Batch of 2 targets.
Target 1
Amino acid sequence: EAGVTQFPSHSVIEKGQTVTLRCDPISGHDNLYWYRRVMGKEIKFLLHFVKESKQDESGMPNNRFLAERTGGTYSTLKVQPAELEDSGVYFCASSHMTSPNTGELFFGEGSRLTVL
Amino acid sequence: RKEVEQDPGPFNVPEGATVAFNCTYSNSASQSFFWYRQDCRKEPKLLMSVYSSGNEDGRFTAQLNRASQYISLLIRDSKLSDSATYLCVVSLLDTGRRALTFGSGTRLQVQP
């Protein structure tokens, strides 16, 4: 079974540009999460989808970040315009609907974003 | 104050040693507790859940003290392959919010 896949693995852009990160969760996982880790800090929650609906977006830092999950399958996270402080690793994770509270999230390898 | 506090380490130990990591969390409403493991430049992976009664999985023992808001992980007979960052993770599990809150991790380096 394929795991959570993320694309691109690394993106280098200039301040003010736009970047779109993509996540393909494990097939059949209704829960999809975005997290990020900025340099030297802990992994922080951004938002949570249940199927195509945003369940919790309390972690989104500001309106330059837009996440979508059309059709409840893959998800995209767009940063527009990117700022220097957006640099970090963006992780996507997914889980079964029946096991979101067990703590077993399956993470992708992350998309490393570098904003120059 | 961070929601989940961990000693960043690194902990450098010889093979075969026993090592213990601790973690404290600030929100007394936290309901679920976990240890995740993250290898260098890889994704976090669930190592084990943590229960109040304490639980063991092979060489790994996890303990939770709700009164002190303290979580521990004990690794016995350390192997080179145990070298990684260990992330203490809690979850509030209140209505609709199932997000995990991560500590910044404790780095373990097991040396031959």
Target 2
Amino acid sequence: EAAVTQSPRSKVAVTGGKVTLSCHQTNNHDYMYWYRQDTGHGLRLIHYSYVADSTEKGDIPDGYKASRPSQENFSLILELASLSQTAVYFCASSWTHYEQYFGPGTRLTVL
Amino acid sequence: AQSVTQPDARVTVSEGASLQLRCKYSYSATPYLFWYVQYPRQGLQLLLKYYSGDPVVQGVNGFEAEFSKSNSSFHLRKASVHWSDSAVYFCAVSMGTSNTDKVVFGTGTRLQVSP
């Protein structure tokens, strides 16, 4: 079965600190995505990648960087965490534009 | 602009009743269409998908959806809901097939099944 894992599952960070969220997939999918979900809201696309060593900006990329060092791994980096980045972050993978497989999410709290 | 609209933020139905959750999209061609479900504190899981062919597609747990090209819609249905169906349901549309085309998600419909 398709598998997407995320680490950490939850994190408390301080304002101005650096945060790295990691995602690993064993699906052999080409596309990977990072979304954020705020309480009571839908998903918003931050960054995505369709090939290793390349990333694309999504709808809300400001304040976030992404890294895709291999097909299996995709990281989201918050260089200077801010209070407004408190949210749940989901990673997903897919084969081209077909259905996405989601990870369990990372709950990030910035204090 | 390409968009996906789920007009009902919350829906409450009684257990055993039928259900329809609405989804409309704005896109010139026929897209790939999806419904996902999110249970509390979990990631999204695929319920069903439409790529082409028969406009009525079957999914897991008795869910089905019908694609209407004329109405640009992809409504989700279930004949008889169970309390365990309480969750948030997202409609998603893949707008195009080039590398930089994206999947657009609706804002979700929170379903509450009452006993």
